[in-house]
Each structure stands twice: as structure tokens, then as C-alpha cells.
Amino acid sequence: MRLIAATAFAALALAGCDATRTTADTSAIEEQIKANEARWNQAYKARDADALAAFYAEDGALATPGEPLARGSEAIRKATAGVASDPAFKLTFSPNRIQVAQSGDLAYSRGRYTMTATDPATKQPNTTGGHYLTVWQKQSDGSWKVVEDMVTPGPPIILDDQSSRASAIL
Prior knowledge:
The chain has helices spanning 2-20, 26-46, 49-53, 73-84; strands at residues 56-63, 70-71, 90-100, 106-118, 125-138, 144-153, 157-160, 165-168.
């Protein structure tokens, strides 16, 4: 009888733990990630390498085409300083999907980007585009930082002569 009572008590205690588990407000977190990415776009527009690097966690990583993986704050700051120093550099990106874990400690954003940079071979501005996937992690202070950031080129960009806007072929 004691074994049955102990088992029942343990089952109720475990069920109570599950019942008290809270889920995160994923909609609010999604809005935070959108706001972070809007500020991140502004930091790219300002070519502020320190502000760009500040979006990453201390152990974050940045993977861009043709470049070695930048791991950690110093490597990421160096990578962002390199692109920010290019006079032709422009980058815009926008998420088309943000997914937040129910636990509220991880999220990812995925979207398209358009980038103009000086082509090392021709020394002329070149516009490219593609996709990105960014993994965000909630930090101990409540902020959201990037722990993984991967960029992959996509279809070529066609410049529309009439509007002088870059548009991607999807």
C-alpha cells in the first residue's frame, strides 16, 4: 500500500511540474527579433562595425560566402569592420520567417538580403543577394544576441534601369 501511495504522490508531483511550466510569449519575442533586425539594418547603413559586432553573442559565429568562419567577438568585429570600410558597401535584409522556441530561449530568423560591395577584381560596385539564417539566443540579461549567422548567395540580382532599384529573381 505504501508503494502505491508513494507512486501516486510521485506521479502527481511530476504532473504538477508540467502544469506549472510556463511557455514564452513567442509573439512578443518575434517582435523583439524584428526590432533587433531593424536596428541591425540601421547599423549596417551607418557602417558602424562596433554596433554590428554588438549584435552577436561573445561566442557567436558569422559564416559568409568565400570567407573563413568568424567565431567570437573579436573575429566578428574584424569581419564587420572590413565590410564597413568599403565605400560602396550597402546591405539590407528582411526576415520572411521568424520562429521562436516555446521555451523562449532560442529563435531564428530567415530572409533575403541585397548587398552592394566593391568587386576586388573589377574595383567596381557589384550587387548580389541571397538568403540568410540567423539563430538568436536569449542572454542572461534578457537581451537577444546572435549565436549563428549564415549567409548564402541566391539568384543573381537584376538592376531595373527604369527605377534603379535592385530586385531579386526568385
